[in-house]
Amino acid sequence: MPQKNIDKQNVLSSNSAIELLAWPFKTKPNTSAEKNKVLAFQTTRFKPVENSTIKNPCTSHNPPYGGFNLGFHVNDNALSVTKNRQYLQNYIQDKLTGKVDIQWLEQVHGNKVVEITRHSKQAMIADASITREKNIALAIMTADCLPILLCDTHGTEIAAIHGGWRPLADNIIKNTLAKMQSNIGELHAWLGPCIGENAFEVGEEVKLAFTKQNVHFAKAFVQQVNGKYLADLSLIAKQQLANEGITKITNLAECTYHSSDKYYSYRRESITGRMASIICLAQ
């Protein structure tokens, strides 16, 4: 069965807006004996705390976006988003003690995977990315969808996946693994915060999209009195990963819909910001 670790065990440090995750290698960063080969981060909707080495971003005062929105496509002030993204990059570089560029995607709820060999300032149209380069951080934006990060045990290859229900139904996980060079048995997966199984109400068509793929996905759907279903995105993703041979899975079991103080939620607010889940290879 996949391994499951609760959120507080997976956070090494936080400045409120950005959390450094204790995954996938349970070691202390920045020590010569136990240096992490891979670093992973997740952001929240909180404004960053004061920091003497990293300049604070210019955050929007508009309530739907205020704090730490990283999405340009949600009609927030572009300058605020640019400042927030720069702050995030500076924070990651501070942790890695080296230059790192964040590769952003224009996510379209599809199943395209791009291999990143060098950074592009232009967001690439895809819903997953992989790299083996040490100066590139891969980012996935979410506000209810499931972020999935992958890396191999040796810390030589990483991937980031946008796990919305449409990409998952269109085999985004399988497509990503097909482009990776690592042995399946050496891959670790991290599932980030998403809309939980008690909040994600969907129609019959969503259930059918998965049960046509595999009848066992039916257990991820609970029918309601109104005829609709409550769907468990994390369970679907864990089953898909397990079907591909990945059992080293860490699950940050937090619901974006119900955690209104910490996370953006499109289902809850409609007009809102975006968080990011980021993974990079250590220098």
Task: Reconstruct the topology from this structure.
Layout: E1 11-14, E2 18-21, E3 38-43, H1 78-96, E4 101-103, E5 105-106, E6 113-116, E7 124-125, E8 128-131, E9 136-142, E10 146-152, E11 158-163, H2 165-169, H3 172-179, E12 187-191, E13 201-202, H4 204-211, E14 221-223, E15 229-231, H5 233-243, E16 248-251, H6 266-269, E17 275-281
Parallel strand pairs: 4-9, 5-7, 6-8, 12-16
Antiparallel strand pairs: 1-2, 2-3, 3-17, 8-11, 9-17, 10-11, 10-12, 13-15, 14-15
CATH architecture: 4-Layer Sandwich
Name of the CATH superfamily: CNF1/YfiH-like putative cysteine hydrolases
Principal-axis shape equals: globular
User: Reading side by side through the largest sheet, how are the strands ordered?
Assistant: 1-2-3-17-9-4
At the third CATH level, what is the topology name? CNF1/YfiH-like putative cysteine hydrolases
Describe the model.
The protein has about 280 residues and is an alpha+beta fold. The chain has one domain: CNF1/YfiH-like putative cysteine hydrolases (4-Layer Sandwich). It is about 20% helix and about 25% strand. The chain has 6 helices and 17 strands. The strands form 4 sheets. Strands 1-2-3-17-9-4 form a 6-stranded mixed β-sheet. Strands 6-8-11-10-12-16 form a 6-stranded mixed β-sheet. It has a 3-stranded antiparallel β-sheet with strand order 13-15-14. Strand 10 and strand 11 form a beta hairpin. The model is unreliable at about 1-10 and about 25-35 (pLDDT under 50).
